[in-house]
Amino acid sequence: MKTAILAGGKGTRLAEETSVRPKPMVEIGGKPILWHIMMIYSHFGFNDFAVALGYKGDYIKRYFAEYGSLSGNLTVRIGQDTPVQRHDIEHAPWCVDLIETGEETLTGGRVKRLKPYIGNETFMLTWGDGVADVNINDLIAFHRSHGKLATITAVRPPARYGHMRFDGDQVTAFEEKPQTAEGWINGAFFVLEPEVFDYIEGDMVMFEHAPLENLAKDGQLMAYRHEGFWSAMDTLRDKHNLQKTWETGNRPWALWEK
């Protein structure tokens, strides 16, 4: 099963980072967040990707061209027919289609432009800026169990600020950034049938708007509730929080380390 990743946005709320590179290439623990996302899927045996490029797409192309040829230990012999010899290749066996989908194309349009590379098969989709400890095998099993066209992973993210409970004016409980209890939000990590492409009219469609709204109206959208870790890297604050989490060694999304 192929995994589509949207990696073409400009990431304007991360301008200090994205002025020189696309948002999915902003690093956590010395690796682009896109790498982290792909490693989540790879941990469950899914190594075939279609990445939708847009803003500074060449940066992502160069990264994977070099990652595929320069990762691991090398011996360089200057002036010989085979100047570079690779040793101890450790990276996952990824096959990555890097597809230009237009710099101004919206999320739905990017998904639709990947159709020739997805084919007529069930596929997965996620954004290039969010990580989670989602069990991909369980997610797919849930999708197959209901027979609908689309499964969305619903999450309850950490609250941005400390949460207080009161008895009158007295604070009876204080929790620093607990998981929010105010409903569920779109955590991406979709599983989709190819008929979903028919819900996307063109480039200037947000996948989160008409396509998902109409799938819901048609009774074709189901939610896989994920109670575990999830975080999106929308702002510098999010980036710094993920980096701090990585540095603690407690990395919930790094399933490949467990």
What does this structure look like?
- Keywords: Nucleotidyltransferase, Transferase.
- The structure is a single chain.
- With 258 residues, the protein is an alpha/beta fold.
- Helix content is 28%, strand content 27%.
- The chain has helices spanning 15-18, 33-43, 57-70, 107-113, 115-118, 136-146, 210-217, 236-248, and strands at 2-7, 27-28, 31-32, 48-53, 73-76, 84-87, 95-100, 123-127, 130-132, 150-155, 163-167, 170-175, 185-186, 190-192, 221-226, 230-232.
- Strands 1, 4, 7, 8, 10, 13, 14 and 15 form an eight-stranded mixed sheet that branches. A two-stranded antiparallel ribbon has the order 2-3.
- It is globular.
- It starts with a strand and ends in a 10-residue tail after the last helix.
Write out key terms for the chains shown.
eight-stranded mixed β-sheet; two-stranded antiparallel sheet; Spore Coat Polysaccharide Biosynthesis Protein SpsA, Chain A; alpha/beta; Nucleotide-diphossugar_trans; 258 residues; 27% strand
Spell out the blueprint of helices and strands.
Layout: E1 2-7, H1 15-18, E2 27-28, E3 31-32, H2 33-43, E4 48-53, H3 57-70, E5 73-76, E6 84-87, E7 95-100, H4 107-113, H5 115-118, E8 123-127, E9 130-132, H6 136-146, E10 150-155, E11 163-167, E12 170-175, E13 185-186, E14 190-192, H7 210-217, E15 221-226, E16 230-232, H8 236-248
